[in-house]
Amino acid sequence: MADIALAERNRQCDKFLGAKRGM
């Protein structure tokens, strides 16, 4: 359960970083 939550959090962080990088 914790792993899934962590993965989901990581995915959101990656998406945010990706958008920032694109900018």
Automatic annotation (TrEMBL):
From which domain of life does this come?
A: Eukaryota
Name of protein: Uncharacterized protein
Q: Which organism is it from?
A: Penicillium antarcticum
State the organism's lineage.
Eukaryota, Fungi, Dikarya, Ascomycota, Pezizomycotina
